[in-house]
Amino acid sequence: MAVTGDFPEFTYPAVGLSVVCAMLCFVGVRCGLWEGRMPLCARGLGSSGVCRGLGGLERLGGSVGRFIYLLYGALTWGVRLCAVGTWAAATVAGLWTLGALAGPPPLDSPVAWGWAAAGCAVGRPVLLWLRKAVDAVQWRWTYAPAPSTITGPVSLSDSVSLSKSVSLSESVSLSKEEADRPRWYPDEEPTGPLSAPAWVKVRRCLALVPVAVASAAVFGLLSADLDQNGLIARMQQEGAVATVGTVTEKPRAVSEDRDSDGILHGYSADLVVQVPDAREVLRADGAYTEGKPERGDRVQLLWTPAQPGWGAYVNHLDDMTARAAPRWELVSSSGPGQHSLFLLIIMLVVTLAFGLPLALAPEADDLHEQSWSAVAQTVYGVVVAGVFLLQRPVLLGMGLPDNTALALATGACFLVPLGLPIVTGIRTLL
Question: pTM of the predicted model, to two decimals?
Answer without folding.
Answer: 0.69
